[in-house]
Write a structure and sequence with these properties.
Elements (H helix, E strand, L loop, with lengths): L3 E4 L3 H11 L3 E4 L5 H6 L8 E4 L9 E3 L4 E4 L5 H6 L1 H6 L1 H9 L3 H4 L4 H7 L6 H7 L3 E6 L2 E6 L4 E3 L2 E2 L6 E8 L6 E8 L10 E10 L2 E10 L6 E2 L1 H7 L6 H14 L10 H21 L31 E5 L2 E5 L7 H8 L18 E4 L2 E4 L12 E3 L13 H8 L9 H14 L5 H7 L11 H17 L1
Parallel strand pairs: 1-3, 2-3, 15-19
Antiparallel strand pairs: 4-5, 5-10, 6-7, 6-10, 8-9, 11-12, 12-13, 13-14, 15-16, 17-18, 17-19
Helix pairs in contact: 5-8, 9-10, 10-11, 13-16
């Protein structure tokens, strides 16, 4: 893991730290990709993390006087999925953000991090590229704006320099009167899956004719690509069945996919054609299927949001866990999961994968469900954390979710149970009477290796009634 963890209180402090530590340093916000890379041994030369999550004003989604939408570098995927502004005037991005990982991941992972990671399968990149986004990179020498289409140079490679920080993402808002956009991805499972392919399309209309088109594709080339021939073909045409079929074929021709463990190259190529056709058909009908609920499950209670306190870089990690104060002089190089288990001796939170895949380590941090295996321990300073040990009442009474799990025999080996219970408990705070679909969304990031999930879902649905009866 890392050996030096710097907590920056301003952007200038972060930039100074980048200069001081050079290529051995990385900016960290959500850390959901970075910690996995550490676990896989891919970051052996990165010894210093520069935490920017305590810098005020970087987590906003705003619109300026010229109609451009701005995302700060700390805006999370759940922030995007829940944003009325994005759902109305940047729907492809809201759709893409909602498809990333699972609720616990989306509560931590940032759109800026998704862009910088530069995987050709990342979902928000095609959406933002189709929207015409640019990024603002800042160093001690000044700022530069780079169109997203010019940001990538290869697989996981960008034009960013070691001393630069991404400080803004911006793009023109869609005009609902004349512009339409959509996003689609195809995966091997419903959640926690890397895209086999993904696609975003934005059309500007002049009456019933296409005035201009932007088509962006992911997981079909070393970088996210556009389909310029298909875009040019669509311009000036109505979206007839023949036009859509030809545009879809031209979009397919733009892709040059490889075969890997998730898909053959031939399948990816055909799915590009299928996705392009489906998206164009939806946009032609102006009646897109609902891929994101009106009130998506976030596993977050934003009313509990707290202003993070500053933290001396070399100071102790002081936090409140289950309403009890803790101060840790050591453990700065660990994840929150290992700090909880090894230093706080709260072993109810389980380590199942240490890669954010199983959800067994789910805890609440300042009212948001997170996977503690993907949170650097120093990030917990000044926060309020709840683990499975703190869920029951002070008198020892079970939480309604715990009671429901008992009544429905929703436990087998029990190893995954703390994570399921925590996810379900946060769901009840969001949706006191959850339905089946909401229960499925809530545990999309939790894996059970014993059951078929039916009793777990039954328990979550019934927990609302138990909670109501207790009240």
């Amino acid at each position: 893991m890392w050996s030096h963890y710097i907590t920056a209180s301003t952007v200038d402090e972060a930039l100074a730290a980048l200069v001081e530590h050079g290529t051995a340093a990385r900016i960290v916000a959500g850390a959901t990709d970075l910690i996995i890379e550490y676990e896989l041994g891919a970051r052996k030369n990165v010894h210093t993390l520069i935490d920017v999550t305590r810098i005020p004003g970087l987590d906003a989604i705003t619109q300026d006087g010229e109609g451009r939408i701005h995302l700060g570098p700390l805006v999370t995927h759940n922030d995007c999925a829940a944003s009325p502004l994005l759902r109305q005037q940047a729907l492809p991005l809201a759709l893409a953000a909602y498809e990333v990982g699972a609720p616990q991941i989306r509560n931590r992972s940032t759109v800026a991090g998704n862009l910088i990671t530069a995987s050709p399968a990342n979902d928000t990149i095609p959406a933002l590229m189709a929207l015409g986004a640019s990024v603002v990179l800042r160093s001690q020498g000044g700022e530069r704006t780079v169109p997203l289409a010019e940001f990538y140079t290869g697989v996981r490679k960008t034009v960013m320099q070691p001393d630069e920080m991404l400080v803004d993402i911006h793009f023109p808002a869609l005009d609902p009167a004349r512009q339409r956009g959509a996003f689609m991805r195809m995966t091997l499972r419903r959640a926690q899956a890397i895209s086999v392919i993904n696609a975003a399309i934005v059309l500007s209309m002049d009456g019933d004719k296409v005035a201009s088109a932007a088509i962006a594709l992911g997981a079909v080339a070393p970088t996210i690509i556009r389909a310029p021939e298909a875009e040019a073909y669509l311009t000036g045409k109505t979206l007839s069945a023949d036009t859509i079929a030809q545009a879809a074929a031209l979009t397919q021709a733009a892709a040059s996919p490889i075969g890997d463990i998730r898909s053959s190259a031939d399948y990816r190529s055909e799915m590009v054609r299928v996705a392009a056709a489906r998206l164009l058909e939806e946009l032609a009908a102006s009646q897109q299927p609902v891929r994101i609920p009106e009130k998506p499950v976030l596993l977050a209670d934003y009313s509990q949001g707290k202003q993070l306190t500053s933290r001396p870089t070399d100071g102790p990690i002081s936090t409140v866990i289950n309403d009890q104060p803790y101060s840790f002089e050591t453990g700065h190089e660990k994840t929150l999961l290992r700090l909880l288990r090894e230093d706080a001796l709260l072993t109810g939170t389980k380590e199942g994968c240490a890669e954010g895949e199983c959800g067994a380590c789910t805890v609440f941090m300042d009212g948001k469900a997170v996977m503690s295996c993907l949170v650097p321990a120093p990030r917990a300073h000044g926060t309020h954390i709840v683990t499975i040990e703190g869920l029951a009442g002070e008198d020892g009474s079970l939480h309604p979710v715990q009671q429901a799990f008992v009544e429905h025999a929703a436990v087998q080996c029990g190893y995954c149970t703390p994570g399921f219970v925590m996810s379900a408990a946060m769901l009840l705070q969001e949706h006191p009477q959850p339905d089946r679909q909401q229960a499925k969304e809530a545990v999309a990031g939790n894996l059970c290796r014993c059951t078929g999930y039916y009793k777990i879902l039954d328990a979550i649905e019934s927990a609302g009634a138990i909670a109501q009866s207790v009240e």
